[in-house]
Amino acid sequence: MASYSIILADDHVLVRQGLRRILEGTDDLEVVGEANDGLDLLQLLKHITPQMVILDIFMPNLRGIEAITEIKTIRPDVKILILTMHRDKEYLYLALSAGAKGYLLKEDAARDLFSAIAEVRQGKTYISPYFSDTVVNDVVQIVKGNAKVIFAADPLTSREREVLKLIAEGKSSKEIANLLFISVFTVNNHRASIMEKLNLNKATDLVKYAIRKGYI
Predict the structure, then answer these.
(1) What is the pLDDT of residue 143?
(2) Long-range pairs of 168-176 with CB within 8 A, sequence gap ≥ 24
(3) Closest among 64, 73, 74 to 94, alpha carbons compared
(4) Which are the contacts of 192, defined by CB distance < 8 A and separation ≥ 6?
(5) Is the pLDDT of residue 104 over 80?
(6) Quick one: pLDDT band at residue 53, thresholds 50, 70, 90?
(7) At 120, is the pLDDT very low, low, confident or very high (cuts 50, 70, 90)?
(8) CA 161 from chain center: how many Å?
């Protein structure tokens, strides 16, 4: 029987190596490629057609959410499983709406990785148990006509969340500019906008917010 082919995309080499060892320890799963970031992943998909891509939400150059949209354009039949540490339900909903079929928290991977792969492989949707109550409560809100309550929690744009994540990781404005291919002036504008929207005055408060939201 032919192996089920998977590409791994995560900017942490140790994570990819660990996943490869685990997956290739089975009889019917094969890792056919690895990508360090979103752009590498898209280049890889031009030459390889896997049956599944397992990727993280936050990667350099092209975030996971944007990568999902691009993947579905290049390889519409490829199934996508998000493997991430981010517990923010906004990312869960953004990933699923972009075309991902699964959202697995890294903290659950040791127990649920193969279950998640099996569900997504069969065309079903897999969501980490952590979100079970949240999803049920949100469905109730939607049925009640209160969907806007669900998505009003974070005022930041996608780019501002990227900048905030890098600030919280200790990157300088110049480093952030280089990583995101924008000017230092633009980075500083984003920083000011973030602090204004969140009503924060100190860099330490930005870090605390990023940690609380699961950005780092």
Answers:
(1) 45
(2) 168/206, 168/207, 168/210, 168/211, 168/215, 168/216, 169/216
(3) 64
(4) none
(5) yes
(6) very high
(7) very high
(8) 12
- What values do phi and psi take at 72, rounded to 5? -65, -25
What would the two tokens of residue 83 be? 């493997």
Q: Are strands 52-55 and 4-9 parallel, antiparallel or unpaired?
A: parallel
Residue-level pLDDT at 210: 80
**pLDDT, tens digit, for every residue of 131-167?**
877 665 665 454 455 545 555 556 788 788 888 888 8
Q: For the chain, give every domain's residue range.
A: 4-137, 158-213
Residues in CB range of 137: below 8 A, 6 or more apart: none
Fold (topology level) of 4-137: Rossmann fold (3.40.50)
Q: Measure the CA–CA gap between 151 and 27, rounded to whole angstroms.
A: 42
Class for the domain spanning 158-213: mainly alpha
Query: What is d(CA 187, CA 203) in angstroms, rounded to the nearest whole number?
Result: 14
- In the block, which residue shows the tokens 């998000």? 82
